[in-house]
Fold this sequence. Notes:
Low-confidence stretches: none
CATH topology: Jelly Rolls
Bound molecules: fe (ii) ion
Distance between the termini: 33 Å
CATH class: Mainly Beta
Amino acid sequence: MKGKDWLLTGDGxxxxxxxVREWDLLRENYRLYRFLTExxxxxxxVDDEAxxxxxxxxxxxxxxxxxxxxxxxxxxPSPKTGTSVSLLYDELGxxxxxxxxxxxxxxxxxxxxxxxxxxxxxxxxxxxxxxxQRTHSPEFQDKIEQxxxxxxxxxxxxxxxxxxxxxxxxxxxxxxxTFNVYGETDPKERFEFDSVxxxxxxx
Length: 203
Ligand SMILES: [Fe+2]
């Protein structure tokens, strides 16, 4: 699972991050529960969780490199919606959600932020990310404009700060499977954007 490491910031800019060599990530029995414990230790030690994204991203890479179980925990896309979600971990009181998401080819997401930090690793297929930035025009507070595009391949991992805005589309001809970790969403800060009407709404 070689791949590139990326970070998307709130201004819609993406940057490449330093990757740890795969060889240095190999561990025996590095399972989901070890990952969760290490993530929890990092989160407990800071106020600004997004400041620790590089370390958290390294743990995600360590997990997908070492855990065949995690890599194989995904569902076929629903024929109705083109997507499906397999929740791997979500516990009340532990501010973390871990899931895999499957998108049938051609399926697109809305334009959204997450209202929390997030890390997404591509396990299968190709995911085209489109990046956006709020432009805060006086007339339209929620006006956004596109800032870039990046297609991610298996092994690629991208981190998002809480106000980073993106939309994704499964490209290529097999379903796209991603492994996703999110912090605790602030529902007041999570929005879907409409690039035509320049409106945003909580979701
Ligand atoms: Fe997203």
